[in-house]
Predict the 3D structure of the following.
Amino acid sequence: MAEYIAPIQKLIDSFRRLPGVGSKTATRYAFAALAFTDEEAEGFADALIGIKRDVHRCPVCCGLSDSEEPCSICRDSLRDASVVCAVEGPKDVMVMERVRTYRGRYHVLGGTLSPIDGIGPNELNIKELLERVGEGVITEVIVATNPTPQGDSTASYLARVLEPLGVKVSRLAYGIPVGGDIEYADEVTLLRAMEGRKRLD
Ligand SMILES: [Zn+2]
């Protein structure tokens, strides 16, 4: 297949790294970028570099922070520190924030247990969660992993390790299909799932 001149081909190849972008779309994007003013191109490149330079892992919840300090949710003293919602990824924090009545904190697990893929408890941010629980403030952990077999086994595992420490572990009661993704649940569904959460034991 014929290639475009190097600077354009390089941008096409870069866009192709994005999920769901094939060579046709990548080519369209590259030519759209070619029409950018110098200022627009700099803004675009700067935004991309900025997510590597300015996004840090929150030292408390393992979610995303815009500094090396704890994130805005962990710093918010008005939020209930006794309730923690455990989610799979940093994106899921914003998903759960759609439930505006939830005023607890979060913990980002960094995935789900999946022995087949070699992902055990040590590959997730579970040690960090246990350390937080060890501080004695957390009384409930609401597990909001996706309703998949891995999400379920992660929830069961968390119940097994946290209940003996006196922490109530509950799981969202999903109104979304098994195998679905909380990302696609609307606010009302998430609110019902949160309110109808079931204790795991
Ligand atoms: Zn945080």
Observations:
- The chain is about 40% helix and 10% strand.
- The first strand starts at residue 56 and ends at 57.
- Residues 116 and 150 are 10 Å apart (CA to CA).
- The radius of gyration is 21 Å.
